[in-house]
Amino acid sequence: MSGLAVTEAELHAHVDGLMPEARRVEIEEYLAAHAGDAQRVRAWRDQNQALRALFDPVLSESLPVRLRKPALRRRMQPLLRYAAVLAWLGLGIVAGWYLHDYNIAKSGDTVAFAHRAVIAHVVYSPEVRHPVEVGADQEAHLVAWLSKRIGGSLKVPQLATLGYQLVGGRLLPGNQGPAAQFMFQDGSGQRLTLYVRNGAGDNKETAFRYTQERGISVFYWVDGKFGYAISGEIDKDDLLRVAQVIYRQLNP
Predict the structure, then answer these.
(1) CA distances (Å), origin 68, targets 47, 73, 229
(2) Is residue 212 part of a domain?
């Protein structure tokens, strides 16, 4: 299945339940291995649910009293049904494209953020002599500097209970401006990196999302105006525990 292309039209048809069973199974396997497209499919399904919640009640509305006279009703009902269907479809298309563009942009931006976190981890975590710009011995300066550059107050989570100590951090370019990276290391030399950006919008959704890329596991989430991504070459469950500790410390 990995070598079999899946088109965007097929993804839309899959969301609408129009694919043959055999192909549906193949697409599910494809989505399990392609987190970006899986995010898009989830966004489209959310859009469909929003449209149904918004427009389905229109179909069950009764006629106004002035149109309930038998003769007039008989003449008007076919036309009214036709007009209602056209209105529903028209509104659905307009709202659907709006929600589609919004959800895909939002989803795509979040996936791109996680991708940048992975790239930064792959680039800097193997470094022996220069893994960070500012070391843990200057933690106060590091936090003040990065907070000023990304335009928000940062905190460094304490991961000693999980066996990790702060190595330091650095400033990085992000897809929406400057980003910060904090690096942690345990006694065996295993390193984790926390990638933080500002400018995520006033988002109240804090659900963790998971992806894996280049052998790197990543949990990422958005909280308020900040986006966070914790990356490492460790087991998914172990990384989730780290993400939960970080979240609790940053949101006491």
Answers:
(1) 35, 6, 60
(2) yes
